């Protein structure tokens, strides 16, 4: 406490309770409310009111006990609320409650995941493409907002492939287009499927093959595939061999005939079902109506020659014919003996 005495009408020199003469006190500590004889009143608003005026007020910093020192406002780039206590350290001046997505000793930079100018309270959230960004490299640049990109990816947000690359959705960076320098119109390709832009009479994903619906060596000669429209699953033949892709039950270089083991006419090629006949015979044998079936079987025997004619015209080999005849013999055995 600093007191003031009155003697012979003259003020007595104040004595500080800290035990030091007034000449050693700071200007702030020597400031007294002369209307009070019993209490020290710190008139500087930057000093914490207290018994010794030795602490700076909230959101100010300094050391009032040091001669000629003052308490200064905390320098936080206007990124603290001065009305909230504890927003900065009263001794060091370090800002403790930074606002507007800022951080640092003086709230001088945007916090991770944000970028912009912290001094103008304009830190905004980074927006990085989830496919093109290298998450292991941290957040975006705090000043420019540039996201860390995977290999061959570009853009502020890492949302595009470099020229000559594609497939950003792989999550591993963009892949080279690999366009053929002679067959393509440039180095770029479709960003979704990697298809290069081909010159006339060129085709394939990288434009190194013959054009669509043709096959061969484009540097020598390309030949039309001419796949049968009824028997082909795709009108594009193999670009190297010319073999067309056939539907089930259809064969041939151009998919223009029924396959082995089938009968009928293109495109209605049906497989033989001799095993079906055997199964039906077993069912009839079990019901005890052999005579009815023997009559049917006799009719079948009378038509064997007709069956052979059909087989002969159905592109079936001699081995297939023998298999059918064996099944017919098995059918007869089932009917006569009941043994499978």
TrEMBL record:
Its main location: secreted. One of its GO terms (cellular component) is laminin complex. It is found in: Secreted, Extracellular space, Extracellular matrix, Basement membrane. Residues 74-125, 126-181, 226-271 form the Laminin EGF-like domain. InterPro entries: EGF, Laminin/Netrin_ECM, LE_dom. One of its GO terms (biological process) is substrate adhesion-dependent cell spreading. Keywords: Basement membrane, Coiled coil, Disulfide bond, Extracellular matrix, Glycoprotein, Laminin EGF-like domain, Repeat, Secreted, Signal. Disulfide bonds join 98-107, 149-158, 227-244, 246-255. This is Laminin subunit beta-1. It comes from Magallana gigas (Pacific oyster).
